[in-house]
Structures are given as C-alpha cells and as structure tokens.
Design a protein that fits this description.
28% helix, alpha/beta, globular, 10 helices, eight-stranded mixed β-sheet, 18 strands
Length: 422
C-alpha cells in the first residue's frame, strides 16, 4: 500500500479522490496462526502492530467480533496524559505519552494528537500539597509538571467559575503541558493500516464463542467463522474480559465490569483550548473541546455492574451539574448525544498485563479509566510479553498474583475496591 504524503493528497485531489489504496485487507481466517489477539480495539491493534514491527512476528491474527472502532475504542473522551505517581504506572504512562508524541509519523497516519495541556483543578491546600508531591515525583523521573496559582490559571483559562462562593472554590491547578487529546477513530485506523502493511490479518465480524484447552495450553479458539488454532493467544477485550476468561475455564477474575458515560454538546466557537478536570467532594469531571467544536465531557461510573453500552439519566444530571458548576457559560448549551463504554475495573485501579494459568495464554485487562491513553504502551508491553514470554520490568507487578503478595498499585490512595463499584 502507498504511503500517505503531501504529494498523494495533492494528486488525489486533482484526480477526483479515485486512486487511494484500500486502508487494510479483509482476509479469510487461516486455520492456524503463530499469535492470535482476541479483540480488535486499540490495545489489540497496537499489540499486533508492535509484535510485527518490534519482534518480527509474521503470522498474526486479530479477531474482532464487530468492526474496527465499533466497541470501546470509539466510546471514550480521548484524553492522553502521564501524570501518574506509583512505581510501574509512572514509567508505563510516560512511555505511552512518548509513543503518542511520535505516533502519527510512526504509523504514517494522522491520529490528531493535540498537546493542549491537562489541567487538574485544586480546591484545598491539602489537594495542592498532594499534587505537588505527585508532580515533583513525575519531574524527578523525566516527565513534566507544573503547579499554577490562581493568577496564572485565570489568565490561561478565563471562563471557569472563580467565585469564592462557588460550589467548588478554585485555588490553583496542577498542569501537564505535554498532555492533550487524540482522535480515537484515527488511532484505530492508523494502527490497523500499519499492522496490515506488516502482514497482520485483521478479521472482522469474527466472534470468539469458545476455546479448546489441552495439557495446560489453549490450542484453539472457536469462532462464528470456524476453529482457529494459535501457538500463542492474547486476550485484549476490555469490559468483556470476564466472559472470554470463563470460556477458557479459568473461573473468576479480580475485576468488575461497569459502564462509563460520555457526552458531547452542540458545536461552539473556540472556548476551551485545554483538558480541564476536577475531583472533589464525591464529584468527578473532565472536559475538552473537539476539533468540531463540541464540548466533550464525562464523569463517574454508573456504579452498577453492566455490559450495556447505554447510559441513564442520574449520571446525565450529575455530569451536567458538574459542568455548569465549573463552567457556568455552558448552562444554555444543548447536549447533542451521549453514550456509554464498558470498562473492566480492577480492585486497585491498575491493569493486568501478564501471563495466565495457561502456558500460552496472555492477559491484557483491568484498565479502569486509563484505557485510551495507555493504548500505545499497552500494545508495546503486551507485545514484548508475548514475544519474550516474560514481563518487562515496568510491568513486572501488573500481574494477577499481586493481590496474593499483598501488593496494591493503588494510584488513588483509596485502597482495594472489591464490590465498592456496584
């Protein structure tokens, strides 16, 4: 397939846009692959791409039950950041951010990554001290971070509610300038196109319905398009992890599946050139403005376990109240649409990238709120695990047995959450 370039855009503009190559193939599944990745979302696509690019794997299949971008990949608020504190997490997400910074060039596809800054509002001296500790730790380990006072914040984001009598009085902000947003569909298409060029078979409309296990290994997966054998198999299916895990006869996982709603308003003139977030008093809220002008925002989970990709009115009300409390100018803006993605919430808020009780089965799951921003590094580290059959040092503790060891990678500092979400 032809590489995209300024010249190809110019030439196709002159020739009626009739000479573009197909972005990726639509192959029939083979009877056997060296590596099968179950799940064609961002993490699965990235894993297959880095397996082919970094490790020279040639015989790889991605099995996607629907179409690319039709699941959680297209149901998020597209925020990218690396302001993590815990050992393992901070190295992981900083690596991911660095991959994001060069991703468009690497994939030869514009993923529309916009480094517009991530601004976490602060509402108390205690919150400011906690943010200073986090961001100083980030800087000591090679990332970036700043603490802004109220004067600096007012100059950069003038539309916020700065009244001292507001519901959440603002005293400053913790800022990561290199953070921002990307276009989720473009990321999926970019990884798919790049993986396909390296020989990866992307098999859509191929739902896994069962598995076959023998002598401690998974030898094949059953699909609606036939049985497919695999020497190594990776699960990267987000909120549906528990379902495929039980198909493998492995019992229960320390995760719960919840839905997270997101919202977009009618298009507006340029209003917000950053990602703004806050969390205080039980409220949780984040907002940015898309290239089309819509205000893209979200908040907390629906708090009950569900596989449904649709929301409900209590969360709509809660998030709308958060939006108008911090940006009163949005009070008369119309809500254009809202949707829901399903998320697998681990007990300490940190994902699993690890081997499993089956010798050739590998797990990528438990992403909580961090799935989209983690996509490049998730694929990079998961591919490294599958290829070398051992975890990279940065994910050595991101395994299923960490709870047995009493080791929680608890980024929120709130402790384990069994049954707390639902």
């Amino acid at each position: 397939m032809t590489r995209y370039s300024a010249w190809s855009v110019f030439w196709n503009g002159l020739t009626g846009q009739k000479n573009w190559d197909r972005a990726w193939r639509d192959p029939e599944p083979k009877k056997e692959y060296d590596v099968i990745i179950v799940g064609g979302g961002l993490h699965g696509l990235a894993t297959a791409y880095y397996l082919a690019k970094n490790h020279g794997q040639k015989n790889i299949a991605i099995l996607e039950k629907g179409w690319l971008g039709g699941g959680n990949a297209g149901r998020n608020t597209t925020i990218v950041r690396s302001n993590y504190f815990m050992k393992g997490n901070r190295e992981f997400y900083e690596h991911s951010l660095k991959l994001w910074e060069g991703l468009s060039h690497d994939l030869n596809y514009n993923v529309m990554f916009s480094q517009r800054a991530h601004i976490s509002l602060l509402h108390s001296p205690g919150a400011r001290d906690g943010a200073a500790r986090r961001y100083n730790t980030m800087r000591l380990h090679g990332s970036d971070g700043e603490i802004w006072g109220l004067d600096k914040l007012k100059k950069e984001v003038p539309h916020l509610n700065y009244s001292p009598n507001s519901r959440f009085p603002i005293i400053g902000a913790a800022v990561q300038r290199r953070a921002g947003t990307a276009r989720h569909d473009a990321v999926a298409w970019g990884y798919a196109r790049a993986a396909d060029q390296l020989g990866v078979d992307i098999i859509q409309q191929c739902e896994v319905t069962g598995t076959t296990t023998k002598n401690g290994k998974m030898v094949s997966v059953e699909t609606n398009r036939g049985t497919i054998k695999g020497k190594k198999i990776g699960f990267a299916v987000a909120g549906n992890t528990s379902r495929v895990w039980q198909m493998a006869g492995l019992g229960k996982l320390p995760i719960e599946t919840h839905k997270l709603q997101a919202f977009v308003s009618e298009p507006l003139k340029p209003l917000l050139d950053q990602v703004v977030v806050f969390g205080v008093g039980g409220a949780h809220f984040y907002i940015s403005q898309s290239d089309k002008g819509g205000m893209v925002f979200g908040g907390d989970l629906d708090w009950y376990k569900s596989y449904a990709q649709r929301g409900n009115l209590p969360i709509v009300q809660d998030v709308a109240e958060c939006a108008t409390s911090i940006l009163p100018c949005l009070g008369r803006v119309r809500l254009l649409r809202h949707w829901s993605g399903v998320m697998d919430m681990s007990m300490d808020g940190t994902p699993f990238i690890c081997k499993t009780p089956l010798d050739n089965l590998y797990l990528n799951a438990g992403w909580n709120y961090g799935g989209f921003k983690a996509s490049p590094a998730s694929g990079w580290y998961f591919a490294d695990l599958i290829a070398n059959d051992r975890p990279h040092e940065h994910i050595a503790n991101h395994d299923l047995k960490r709870f047995e060891r009493g080791y929680n990678i608890d980024e929120r500092g709130a402790g384990p959450d069994p049954k707390l979400h639902g």
